[in-house]
Amino acid sequence: MSGFVNYNNISIRLCVLGDGGVGKTSVTIQFVSNNFLNCYDPTIEDLYRKQYVIDDQVYMLDILDTAGQDELTPIRNHWIRSCESFILVYSITSRSSFDQIQFYRDLIVSLLDRDNVPIMMIGNKSDLEYERIVTYQEGKDLANRLGMSFMEVSAKNRSIIEEVFNETVRNSKKIGQKSKKGKSIGNKKSIIKKFNQKVNNTFNSIFRMI
Ligand SMILES: Nc1nc2c(ncn2[C@@H]2O[C@H](COP(=O)(O)OP(=O)(O)OP(=O)(O)O)[C@@H](O)[C@H]2O)c(=O)[nH]1
Ligand SMILES: [Mg+2]
């Protein structure tokens, strides 16, 4: 840490995916506004924006909170293509939500057509230890096998939520730097601008479809 903050925003488009009811919205809202709602209101699609400083750098995070309900799967591919970084969520109380993780991961890799996509897998609802069905070790093993980062969290208790987003941003930056290696800073700015234009177009077409 240098102590000097770089205020030139770096934008990151983040997509939160996982089965219905695992806590995607709860994790996102805890991170964005330090709130937890006990009620369940299935998401259609929500976009959250948060400015965020980590490692002396200001980031603008656009977080796309997606629907886990089956009726909305046709639009899922658009969501995935419009983002560059991903958080895959399952609930430690639901075996079926854990079993779906590989499906989401494979879908991301095939739609983005590259395998160095920053993906964080999280096991949510860690406060419900007495209802646990998926062990920590199972989560760790799957994440290792698929090359993803892994944490268990509780949106309810705000446990490890900040860490998830820190790690996601750091991984995005690391992978971004690797793929842009050798390009000049001036080049980097125009690439980001072009990328943002592309993503905005995709987002607009998603909103038109809903
Ligand atoms: N105990 C506990 N309950 C949680 C936690 N996270 C979410 N919940 C509850 O689980 C239910 C579903 O949470 P949501 O965040 O709406 O789940 P979702 O994944 O966004 O669901 P969809 O939008 O339908 O895909 C709600 O009743 C939440 O209060 C958690 O960490 N612990
Ligand atoms: Mg939701």
Mean of residue pLDDT? Answer: 87
Secondary structure category: alpha/beta
Q: Can you write the helix and strand succession as a string? A: EHEEHEHHEHEHH
Number of helical runs? 7
Distinct ligands, ions and cofactors found in the model: guanosine-5'-triphosphate, magnesium ion
Helix content: 40-55%
Spans of at least 5 consecutive residues whose pLDDT stays below 50 are 182-188
Shape: globular
Biggest pleated sheet: 6 strands, mixed
Q: In angstroms, what separates the terminal alpha carbons?
A: 43 Å
Oligomer category:
single chain
The tally of beta strands, per DSSP, is: 6
Classify the beta-strand content into a percent band: 15-25%
Element layout with pairings:
Blueprint: E1 6-18, H1 24-33, E2 45-54, E3 57-66, H2 76-81, E4 85-91, H3 95-99, H4 101-112, E5 119-124, H5 136-146, E6 149-152, H6 161-180, H7 185-209
Parallel strand pairs: 1-3, 1-4, 4-5, 5-6
Antiparallel strand pairs: 2-3
The protein binds guanosine-5'-triphosphate (GTP) and magnesium ion.
InterPro entries: P-loop_NTPase, Small_GTP-bd, Small_GTPase, Small_GTPase_Ras-type
Keywords: GTP-binding, Nucleotide-binding
GO molecular function: GTP binding; GTPase activity
Structure summary:
By secondary structure, this protein is of the alpha/beta class. 42% of the residues lie in helices and 24% in strands.
Structural overview:
With 210 residues, the chain is α/β, with parallel strands linked by helices. Helix content is 42%, strand content 24%. It has seven helices and six strands. The chain has helices at residues 24-33, 76-81, 95-99, 101-112, 136-146, 161-180, 185-209, and strands spanning 6-18, 45-54, 57-66, 85-91, 119-124, 149-152. The chain has a six-stranded mixed sheet, sandwiched between helices. β5, α5 (136-146) and β6 form a beta-alpha-beta unit.
